[in-house]
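Let's do one together. I've listed all components of the complex below, 1145 residues spread over two lines.
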Amino acid sequence: MKLPCSHWLTAFLFAAGSSAPAALTPEQVAQLPPPAAHAVNFSSEIKPIFEASCVKCHGRGRAKGEFQIDSRATLLKGGDSGPALVPGKSAASLLVELVAGFDPASVMPKKGTKLTREQIGVLRAWIDQGAPWDPNVTFARAEPANLKTRRPEFPKSQGKATNPVDRLLEPYFAANKIKPPQPVDDRAFARRVYLDVVGLLPPPDKLESFVADKSKDKRAKLVRRLLADQEGYALHWLSFWNDMLRNDYKGTGYIDGGRKQITQWLFTALETNKPYDQFVAELVNPTAESEGFTKGIVWRGVVNASQTPAMQAAQGVSQVFMGVNLKCASCHDSFVNDWTLADAYGLAGVYADGPLEMVLCDKPTGKIAAPKFIYAQLGELETSTNKTVRLQHLAQLITRREDGRLSRTLVNRLWQKFFGRGLVEPLDDMEHPAWNPDLIDWLAEDFADHGYDVKHLIEVMLTSRAYQLPATPATEQVGSDFVFRGPQVRRLSAEQFRDAVGALTGVWYGSPATPFLRADGSTNHFTATRSALVAADTLQLALGRPNREQVLTSRATAATTLQALELTNGAELAEVLAQGAEKVIGIPAPGPELVTQLYAKALGRKPTRAEVELATSLVGQPVQKTGVEDLLWGLTMMPEFQLIY
Amino acid sequence: MKTNAQWNRRDFLKTTSAATLSALAAGFPRAVIAADAVTEKIKATADTVIVLWMGGGMAHTETFDPKRYTPFEKGMAPDAFLSTFPSIPTAVDGIHFSEGLEKMAAVMDRGTLIRSYTAGDLGFILHSRHQFQWHTGYAPPQTVAAPHLGAFIARTLGPLNPAVPAFINIGQRFDNGEGEELKAFTTAGFLGSEYGPLNIPFPDQAEDTVRPPGGMTPGRFEDRNKFYKKLLAASPVGEHGSDYQKESLLRSLDNAHRLLSSPAAKAFDLSLEPLDSIRKYVPTYQPAQRFAAERDRFGAKYEEQMVGRFGLGCLLARRLAEVGARYIEVTTEYIPFFNWDTHENGHSRLVAMKKQIDAPIAQLVLDLESRGLLNRTLIVLASEFSRDAMIEGKPDKLIKDQVEVPAKVEDPKHYGMHRHFTDAGCVLLYGGGMKRGHLHGLTADERPCKTIKDRVIIEDLHASIYRAVGISPKLAYEIEKRPFYTTRNGEGIPVMDLFA
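Okay, and this is what the predicted structure of the assembly comes out as:
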């Protein structure tokens, strides 16, 4: 059977015939491969056959033809066609009949490699020998990783680490024979934390007083001071959450009322550091201000069943908060993970306004999805016909203290933001184990213990010695060979870049795209109109600010030619630099002094003598506007400016 | 001038290494191919694709599939006319066009005409939604950002000439009523912005996209770059050694600089084209004429002011094809209720639309032919769907009407095709391995003038375009571990009858 929605490579799809096949004739029995002559070992001989040929459709939660191969008991029970095998009688066992393939219409496996005669012989011998099963082996759906809460013990400290991240990393570094180098200097540290907490470059005066400060805990103090900057924090993290919740001032759907912003709700949540459990609860079970996320994007006309608003809500909620990808399962049982159509529809059913019929690859199945949450382990969702009640329960379930996935997912996203690579990768596949389970488990528990205070979580990470390690070259590190040695070199986001240029030139955007009500009651009262406050312009789009039509949990960071073209001759940046140059030449100071000021603002350091000479000759004597423009351009194109070391 | 095949291989490698470098970015989509895909390599019949986009819904019976003509008569029944123009013969016996397309009719012997293109069933009409489906092969919304046809081609084949962006999009602005919807598909989507479009809304100002920023002389531009190199050399950050982020940034800037200072950049400058040559595309062209991008944007004078803009777009497309562009799209520009989107005055407005397109398209075909490029350049003229005076949607799948049809046509403004018809449509193909003087598909001669033979759907049209450039319809890129195919589910089948 080929499903119409066959966008998979080597689909192992098949379904058992609904009527029991007739028993084999004596001639057919005679044609069967003879049973192997030896005593069969289940684990080394049978298990691999089941794994290769059966489990994709009859294990790991799948039950094609209502047949599951999870355990010996379910195997014996069989499916729609009756018991799969009779211990001791291989020739009378349905399993042998189907894999032998006398009837091409019902041969198993339906797709993929058929069993060899040797394999059938081994299978027969195993059945004849009573089909013994190792009770430790199961093909049932595995217990999902990173779901239950777990509080790891701190290892016995070998060194002088006090930050929990560092204490937990000590045995890791030891095991990997890594002697962590000295932390970065004050300037590099300050640049990192400014960009990571408030998304801005450190202002020169603040930077110098930080460097001059002799107190021992000045780094922790700086982190705390930045976290206390409500405006700066909110305007930086607004972009992170806008990507994730695909919220923007403009986009598809608005023309037909098929979309709603959550900008004000989100801004306030960030400005007031709303506890994360409450933040999530208000998105899952929304108010009028926060409903834009689960309302989805609706285009005019008919919509495919796998993209209805309820299904979009299921996909968004599971991806963003639980690190689970239900997109494949929205159309058919997934081939890339264990999620099934029933799982996706179960969650969509919570959001549907009425009973929701499951649709398999655009074909209605006639089955109504029972509303449920994707992880029964976290508790049963009360099935109410009242959507309001269902959403209340869903919000409670997903934010339960026992839900270790909610907290780990955010811990992982923040770790990836600060360190360049997640503790679990890919970010939206939280069923993968972390490269350091103790670390993610501890951070998640600590985060929950502290009332889901996101700023607390950030503080723990940024005050760690691990965060202060020298940057490591970012290479594509996939697979299990990844070894953590420190934060990776990162690139400024579109918003960070434009805001850095704003800080350098004093040229910001005009007015915010929509009125922002501040917690103090004022409207649009901001120190500067930063990138996150306006709709994306060509420059921001070119630098990777996404059009927020889908949930996006991490952006591509490689530089592209079209980006460089925009930076090199794009009108927007050129205009900002021209206005900035105008301001600079208004400052009554000689060339070398202006150069020194610009270096301090852009790169947070004094220029070297060679740099002063070079830049002074460019800006001219007296200082020329075009020279300053070109210097500003040159500075903003420096890797030192665009990258976070 | 170099022909397509002669681009310096070393340059090419230099540029593609940047693309490869960006391909190393975390989670970058990897190419995969369906297990049941034909493994034999498809022999490309084209190197370059030019899509001429008739955005807004081009009525087949008023253009390339004329039916019985009934002149306007006050008080006529609204279903009394199938075409509002008489038909004219073309260079091919048995193929007629609608009046006003004489120059295109004269080059029909170079083309293949599909009369049986059928748009998808997406319910209550939203033009941009059908355009999204036409350009990506998928109907929105989608769970991942679907790449544009041009981006798929750019990603798969790379630039033909490394100094010319692989995907160039001419003539569309994004600040109109459906601009956000247009943006949603005018993108490389999950393939990454390396493969996205270079947008040139005004062809007469194309050189702005590839020359130094406003007011900067070429000399200063070169000096700025030299200074930048010195600045880099002087920076102590060089001590950080080499990392992939830095390499990627520096290489992208080098690429941009090379592009801006390349001889190929001259192709963007229409002022270098002789006047008589421009006038073959735009007969009314005045020297140094500039379009007022800001003035009277989409107001009453819009169409009048934009006369010649599409023609110059075709001329620019020819110049870009000559220097080795890979995928070029030129649009008449989609703006709700303008150009082909005729909710009233269908007849008179089509007179103007035909004037816009007839000369430049015919000239584009002739110019590419005389330069020996037509064989390896596939021109595709298409629209998201057709129009009819009476039927909204398909005869057997009617959808909610958007245009009121009066009981009697008293006013000429009601004389025309004002409803959205999705059961037929014309696509014209020239060059790139397609047959010449060929007709594919048939529509009924009486209303409903729907497809009755050899229906072509978007998946199969895309499969044909992909096949022409040597790409399998089953090619997929992996996103979030699942394959995303060039044609939906990898199920597009090339229409082999179109190929020579």
